[in-house]
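Revision sheet: structure tokens.
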Amino acid sequence: MTAGETTDASPLHRLLRRAVDVKPEEVNAMLMSFAFFFFVLSGYFVLRPIRDAVAAASGVQKLPWLFAGTLTATLAFNPLFSALVVKFPARRFVPVSYQFFIANLLVFYALMRYASPGENSNVDVWTGRAFFVWTSVLSFFGTSIFWCFMADVFRSEQAKRLFGFIGVGGTIGSIVGSSLTATLTPHIGSVNLLLVSAALLEGAALTVMFFPALPRLARADVDPKEDAIIGGGIMSGVTSVLKSPYLLGIALFLILYSIGSTFLYFQQADIVGRFYADRAARTTVLAQLELAAQVLTVITQIFFTGRIIRWIGLAAALAVLPVASMFGFAALGVMPVFMTLAVFTVLRRATNFSLTNPAMEVLFTVVSREDKYKAKSFIETFVYRGGDQIASLAYAGLAALGLGLAGIAFTAVPVSVGWFVLALWLGRTQAKLATQEAEPQAAALKTA
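Predicted:
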């Protein structure tokens, strides 16, 4: 019997079993993970509509420059994060990473509150652009650091059962964050919401400090020393990606996802910028789209995500969003109007959060602990943002060739087809690696 395991299920465990296949010894870690993700995404989604309003106000022609700035900032932050991974245990470098973003957020609050003379002033415009870049970096690193920690704590088999439910915490956080922005912006303004976001992100940092003991739950094949320093080199994450076909495949998967997301984001900025004239209206409608996506997500996560992954397998689960994107971009090409955009955006985001994201995070449970933090972080930040930059340049190039919104939407269809093929390969490869990993674990349990 492992540490923390009980022979009798508690009332809480019996209640949770109605929604998720969780074992008694996994309950505490699962609920703490749930709360951790809630704080991360609620803090970010308070800010996301504010960031998107800046994008809509800047216009589509400015987005490639904003994406280039984000790529540069992401590249600069990666070695800083890797340096923390090399020197400190996870319980220390994870909270410090979030507190770094909180400190930055307070600087933006001071600039927006006291330095900007008014909306559309030079200070306001440039502060907004810097805020767009910074918030985009937060969106990648905040979520990536959380899932790095999850891949370190849970095994592949546990991840397939529990990540869907853990994702509900993030979805509820997204709903709360979007709701706060949509509800409070007309009353207190967007600037004061930065303090709300800072408090929520601090909740994420505190959750890690009180997380159940590491290393991975119920494992007999690891060093019992709690939360050992990972060590290694600062650039080892990059070299691991270049050497591993599996990690390269994950990187390409994210690039193809990013291309579709960026095309859709540009089209959103174009359509919303034309249909809604002022910043408050744009912020409100964007928050409403986020809210609709997150409500659909949480329903799917609670009742279907874990079951879908078990029923159809990881490969098929990864392939659902590429198939949906084929049809979605084709529909947007035929009818490039706000209603088509709204439906496609809500369905794509809901599918990503409820199914693709948990399924993709399972891919990292079969790599080394060092790669779970360094290679994973590099892929989900710099590589992902690099995909955004490629997509933004491609979008600008297609527009320069004379393609309109509909024509560019049609070009995303064959990209989605390639993404579908890669999803199937990654799912099948993960299954093989998980089987190889399980064999020594089973042998260790037999001899224990």
